[in-house]
Design goal:
about 200 residues, alpha+beta, Glucose Permease (Domain IIA), three-stranded antiparallel sheet, 14 strands
């Protein structure tokens, strides 16, 4: 084997190993967390705020997670429920090109208790892309894999305003394992009416 061929072989092997690491699948290893909101991605919590939710016209607790280049890219559902709607365009950028559209995705899930959770994905990296495939009307389970955010990006979770916050800015979170918050219900009201508060 010539020196040039050896270099190409080594470089190819290193590239394959690097891609395998970046796209590694790490199945969540935790029991179900009733009313818990799991982190959909691995990364760092960079912002926590109370704001007006996008898509859903109501106040919300929003956690922003930054996915680094070396973080795992797989996404896992933060909660169980029914997918109510999916979007491929940011609200303020309806005229995005098809190339840019591949870098954005959001979906709205309503839990069995009637809570609305919205997850927004955005990948600004030049080579980044959001590969998520969900359909309105399908059910999704807590911790269920649903796609990936490749080569870094930002994920925002919009939760009911009265959710009990557990995560905080600076936390390192693991996809499908770390609990960001808990949905809050008044048990007496649920028992008396059969409906969530």
């Amino acid at each position: 084997m010539q020196a040039g061929d050896a270099v190409i072989t080594v470089a190819g092997g290193a590239l394959a190993a690097g891609l395998a690491f970046l796209f590694r699948v790490t199945p969540p290893n935790m029991a179900a967390a009733p009313l818990g909101i799991l982190s959909p991605v691995s990364g760092s919590v960079v912002k926590v705020e109370r704001t007006e939710g996008i898509r859903l016209p109501r106040s919300a607790l929003c956690l922003t997670i930054r996915v680094g280049l070396l973080d795992g890219y797989d996404c896992y559902s933060p909660t169980e429920g029914l997918i109510r709607e999916c979007w491929h365009r940011p609200p303020a950028e309806a005229d995005l090109s098809s190339r840019s559209a591949s870098r954005y995705y959001s979906f709205w899930v309503r839990t069995d208790e009637g809570d609305d959770v919205l997850v927004e994905h955005y990948s600004p990296a030049l080579l980044g892309a959001v590969g998520l495939k969900l359909q309105p009307g399908e059910r999704i389970g807590q911790g269920q894999p649903y796609g990936n955010v490749r080569f870094g990006g930002t994920v925002r979770c919009y939760l009911p305003e009265n959710s009990e916050l557990i995560g905080s800015v600076g936390d390192r979170v693991q996809a499908g394992q770390s609990i960001l918050a808990r949905l809050v219900h008044t048990q007496a009201l649920v028992a008396a009416t059969g409906a969530p508060s």
